[in-house]
Amino acid sequence: MDRATFACSTAFFRDYSSSSQGAFCLPTGHVDFIDKVESFTYSEFFRDYLIPNHPCIFSAKFTDGWGSRKNWVTWDGKPDFDHLLQKFGEAIVPVANCDVKEYNSNPKEQLPFKEYINYWKEYIKNDYRSSRGCLYLKDWHLSRAFPEHDVYTTPVYFLSDWLNEYWDAIAVDDYRFVYMGPKGSWTPFHADVFRSYSWSANICGRKKWLLYPPGQEDCLKDCHGNLPFDVTAPDLQDRSVYPRYNQSQPPVEIVQEAGEIVFIPSGWHHQVYNLEDTISINHNWVNGCNVAIMWCFLQDELAAVQREISEWKEPMDDWHLQCQLIMKSCTGIDYKEFYNFLKVIAENRISILENGLDDEASAKNTPKAAISTLGMLHAVFDLKRTVKVLTSLSANEDFKKLDLTSLSPPPEALLHHLKAAIDTALL
């Protein structure tokens, strides 16, 4: 392939020796604010935030053109309930009760959207009190349910999105969400699915974020090794329950205004509050910069399951398979599906490198659209990162104990194809 077709310089996508380079550096407490749309490039975001795994905030200028910011908000910056009811009133939405703790999260129920909006209006009228508690609409797959609506456009910085690329391909799920909640609604302490990146854009309202970089959460665990539900709870001061709390660093605190986008790096635990009536758009995503972190997370999850049921290892013939099943029920993925995840990402990029871009490249939410925007060398970078993780997965003893005959192509053949495609692209 002619290097002239590469949209980015080779120096920019140099092959970093570790996917988590800089990921565990403690922050100074400062979070960069990106103000100017026209002068902030994808390469700068890649270099300064994705690779070093640092948070940042994008100004409201980056979302000015979104349909949701124009149509979902009243003239005084409040949620436009009438417009939302007109467009989505008959939808069924997931709603969490922020006043109830169930295990280490809030219990959820499915409600008609119009019922939730009526509740929200009454909640405001009653000075933010209700016998039903503080209800928070969370994890609504609005884009999937209403694809025809002009809600938002994913910023270029977040286009390299393997999670949604894969789940779109198998038509099972996605990780694109809408959140809506009254002042006082909140999300307990957690790290995002698969230790993915996330971005969150406020359509209206304000949020407060408490962020802890990877590793700091260990100081917040109780004497049984459990993470707290609420990092602001007075109980954490009890050293007999939380013996390492006094060793923890203060969280990085962000107050996010209307229109702004917060980038949360991989593995950063966080707790989030709505300071006003707030609507936000949220994505989780993985790409070549953090796929190794996802792989490390899955290995840790499997090891935890194996410890939990270690006493059944001898009497249970299919113990290794049972461990995979339990891990998938807890995390949403097992090792064989992780292989298929890597395969879909790899084959999409191999196809692009071997066949080039076509008319599909102009369509939204496609791998070709992302590569068309980011440049062909990004496909090479993605393949190099996939090779590293796939090589590690193929050598993993727990993976090799599974029945791999159903995997097509076999891991060795896929690796060979990957390496050949990279070599050919760089000729």
TrEMBL record:
Keyword field: Iron, Metal-binding, Oxidoreductase
Cofactor(s) needed by this chain: Fe(2+)
Signal peptide (residue range): none
A GO biological process held by the record: positive regulation of translational termination
Gene3D superfamilies referenced in this protein's UniProt entry, alphabetically: Cupin
Pfam families tied to this protein: Cupin_8 (PF13621)
Gene Ontology terms: cellular component: cytoplasm; nucleus
Family: Belongs to the JMJD6 family.
Protein name: 2-oxoglutarate and iron-dependent oxygenase JMJD4
Natural source organism: Chauna torquata (Southern screamer)
High-level lineage: Eukaryota, Metazoa, Chordata, Craniata, Vertebrata
